Every structure is written in C-alpha cells, then in structure tokens.
User: Fold this.
Amino acid sequence: MTQPTPEPSPAHEPEGSAAPPPPPPPPYAAPAAYPYPYAFAVYDPRAKSRMTAGLLGIFLGGLGVHRFYLGYTSVGVLQILVTLATCGIGALWGLIEGIVILSGSGLQTDADGIPLRP
Assistant:
C-alpha cells in the first residue's frame, strides 16, 4: 500500500514560491433586472377574480350575478328584487357596483374574507 507523500511545509519551500492567498469573494449585488417579475405574486387558489366580478356586475348586475359569484347571496337576491320592483331601473346598482369593483375601490374580499386577485 502506498502512502501519500506529505505536502512540504512553508518552511521547506524556497523564498518567493509561496502561492498568494485567494482573493476575497466579491460582495453580493442583486441582479439589475430580476428575470421573473411575477415570481412572488402568489395568490390563494380559492381567490376569485376582480375582473370577472366587475364584468359580471357591469353586464349582469341587475340580476346580482357578481354578488352570487363572490358569495354574497343575500345581497344578490336583494338586487334581483330591487331590479324587479323598479322595472329594471335597479339594474343601475349592479352596473355602478361593477365599475367600482373594476376600479379597485369597491369590494376587496369575497364572502369568505379572501382578497380578490387582479
């Protein structure tokens, strides 16, 4: 069995032949542009879409469909009753509510308290 030869100690090396120490590692710098800009936009898989709720409010707001979509069933039924009682004029409530939802200043969560995703 062959034994490895021991490395010579610095005292046995001739002067001037010692290897210089390795350079220090460069300081950490963040990349200029992160290649995946939406990598951290993680939403709850149960989250409802703000766009869908707003468009349902605009087009079918008189029937309260957007409220049913978000889980607010009692308000959805109330919107249907108001629309029927006012011969369709109550549908403006759903239209306005759909626009407000799309603008982001209206409903922020669904009936379970889960924030709406964009």
Helices lie at 50-60, 65-70, 73-85, 91-103. Residues 73-85 form the longest helix (13 residues).
